[in-house]
Q: What sequence folds into this?
């Protein structure tokens, strides 16, 4: 049953998607209705998508909840800012340390997840996140407390100084790589093990999936992506306040993956745009909505859970199905 | 040596208690290599519980479960954790099918090869040649098994929404991915019609020959048990009643009273 295969591989899709994302700021420059601040919003969205992708690995694939994404992201942001600005370390070194430290803590949370599940795991991760946020407020010599910590655009290899636009491209590259690697992992043995853990614990253990190991891997992957996002954030926005890394941000990540689609890689990015970019770009202008963006998220989540439990990313399929049905109806009626 | 030459699994004085209830009580039986062994008994007799004890989903209160593993060593399964059992060559299905609904049939079957993968997360993430090759090998193996069970055409469909008979087959296919020495089937014919049950009997025998393994099965459907099993062990209230060939068991008055008799009255 060998069909002629179209040589289109999944990685090409991710690359094309990345190129499209990279073009957005250019479009912004040549159209009048989008302001130059757009690139900050879009860049922020792409950064959030990276962290949300990690949460999707954790919740979507592995069925483990976390409300700690914001805390880990913030920790990485401060670490990288501190190491590049105060210690004068190269960007690459800061990046590695700023990803490793939160990931170690994330793995410890993974250990906790063996003992507590569901609601209680959500609360435990929230507690970790809140402790981190309090730490950001208190450890002023690293975080500069409430005044906020500033950082610079990344300098690659010690001599390539990036500006806003090139940092944006770097962020898009990181997202595309994250999407590609996530896709590869989730469509192989590791991803199936995650799915088994979520879908049937009995089947997973009978088939030899060692749940401790895979829980730790899931938490590690989620924290790596959250930390990468944190590092990108602080070197793109160039500022971090303790209040940024609060429960609302963690809930936003949850909203992104639920609205975009659990276990959907493109859906995660779509979710990030719906939850973050659209309100920021369009709805903020309307004063009423500015106050109510969180209500909008809540309503969207409920709508999606009720009507699109597999996420808005699947709306395309349904429109296509509806169209085919309609066409068939017209066809049948014609006969 | 705890096991004689051609003995594969020996259950010795197995007991497990839930609260005051003795679900399995001093039960002993032995399964030989390449044997199709049936465990029968009325509802609530403790059959599933025996399976759960063998596969370490439950830790028995007493008793030993000796098993000649794939390395030909004799081990006591009781010493293992649940996820380690499959590595010894024991794999099972579940009375209430345990599959991952959101995955395709092929992916569900591939989970059965989980322990055989040698490449790690990083090789898989980077799609290194060895990871790609490994995945292709197990995919081919899974497709082969699906063909044998006659559900190859459905391999890319989601498990969600498949008819019950197909789900039972997918679970069966999954067990064979790990090249087991002992396959444990909990009511494999439940929910199947007569034609499917007959076909299943054939499949189980064919599979024993193809994969060179022993089969331990629990079944309510007496026709299947009588038809396919070399040896049958009957239990009631967690206790041993009788053991023998299908004919012996059918003639046994204890079994008739506990199980067959009752069934006839029901009909
Ligand atoms: N986890 C458990 N907790 C309490 N009682 C159990 C548990 N598992 C099984 N039992 C009891 O043990 C007895 C045997 O059950 P089971 O092994 O499922 O029977 P069978 O598979 O032969 O129909 C039943 O009375 C059942 O209620
Ligand atoms: Mg049972």
A:
């Amino acid at each position: 049953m060998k069909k002629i295969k179209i040589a289109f591989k999944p990685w090409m899709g991710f690359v094309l998607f990345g190129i499209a994302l990279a073009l957005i700021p250019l479009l912004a420059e040549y159209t009048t209705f989008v302001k130059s601040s757009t690139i900050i919003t879009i860049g922020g969205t792409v950064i959030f998508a990276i962290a949300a992708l990690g949460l999707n690995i954790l919740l979507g694939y592995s069925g483990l909840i976390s409300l700690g994404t914001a805390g880990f992201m913030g920790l990485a942001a401060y670490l990288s800012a501190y190491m590049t600005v105060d210690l004068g370390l190269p960007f690459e070194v800061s990046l590695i340390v700023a990803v490793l430290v939160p990931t170690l803590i994330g793995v410890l949370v993974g250990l906790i997840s063996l003992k507590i599940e569901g609601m209680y795991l959500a609360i435990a991760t929230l507690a970790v996140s809140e402790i981190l946020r309090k730490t950001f407020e208190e450890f002023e010599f690293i975080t500069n407390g409430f005044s906020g910590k500033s950082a610079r655009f990344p300098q690659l290899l010690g001599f390539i100084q990036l500006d806003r636009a090139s940092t944006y491209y770097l962020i898009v590259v990181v997202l595309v790589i994250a999407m590609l690697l996530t896709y590869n992992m989730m469509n192989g043995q590791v991803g199936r093990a995650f799915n088994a853990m979520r879908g049937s614990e009995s089947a997973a253990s009978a088939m030899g999936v060692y749940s401790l190991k895979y829980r730790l891997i899931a938490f590690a992957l989620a924290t790596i992506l959250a930390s990468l996002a944190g590092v990108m954030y602080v070197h793109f926005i160039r500022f971090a306040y303790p209040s940024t890394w609060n429960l609302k941000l963690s809930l936003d990540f949850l909203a992104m993956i639920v609205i975009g689609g659990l276990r959907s890689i493109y859906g995660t990015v779509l979710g990030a745009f719906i939850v973050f970019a659209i309100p920021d770009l369009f709805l903020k202008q309307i004063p009423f909505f500015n106050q109510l963006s969180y209500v909008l998220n809540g309503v969207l989540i409920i709508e999606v859970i009720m009507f699109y439990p597999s996420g808005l990313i699947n709306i395309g399929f349904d429109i296509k199905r509806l169209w085919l049905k309609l066409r068939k109806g017209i066809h049948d009626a014609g006969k | 040596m705890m096991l004689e030459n051609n003995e594969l699994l020996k259950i010795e004085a197995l007991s497990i208690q839930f609260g005051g209830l003795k679900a399995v009580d001093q039960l002993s039986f032995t399964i030989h290599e390449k044997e199709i062994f049936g465990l029968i008994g009325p509802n609530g007799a403790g059959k599933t519980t025996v399976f759960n004890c063998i596969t370490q989903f439950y830790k028995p209160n007493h008793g030993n479960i000796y098993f000649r593993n794939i390395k030909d060593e004799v081990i006591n399964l009781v010493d293992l954790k649940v996820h380690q059992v499959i590595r010894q060559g024991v794999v099972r299905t579940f009375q209430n099918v345990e599959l991952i609904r959101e995955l395709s049939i092929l992916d569900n079957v591939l989970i059965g090869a989980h322990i055989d993968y040698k490449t790690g997360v990083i090789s898989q993430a980077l799609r290194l040649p060895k990871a790609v090759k490994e995945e292709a090998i197990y995919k081919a193996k899974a497709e082969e098994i699906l063909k044998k069970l006659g559900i190859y055409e459905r391999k890319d469909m989601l498990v969600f929404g498949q008819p019950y008979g197909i789900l039972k087959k997918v679970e069966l296919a999954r067990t064979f991915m790990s090249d087991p020495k002992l396959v444990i089937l909990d009511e494999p014919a439940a929910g199947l019609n007569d034609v499917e049950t007959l076909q299943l009997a054939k499949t189980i025998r064919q599979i024993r020959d193809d994969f060179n393994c022993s089969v331990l099965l629990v079944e309510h459907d007496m026709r299947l048990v009588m038809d396919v099993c070399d040896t049958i062990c009957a239990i009631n209230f967690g206790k041993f009643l009788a053991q023998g060939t299908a004919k012996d068991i059918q003639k046994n008055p204890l079994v008739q009273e506990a199980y067959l008799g009752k069934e006839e009255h029901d009909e």
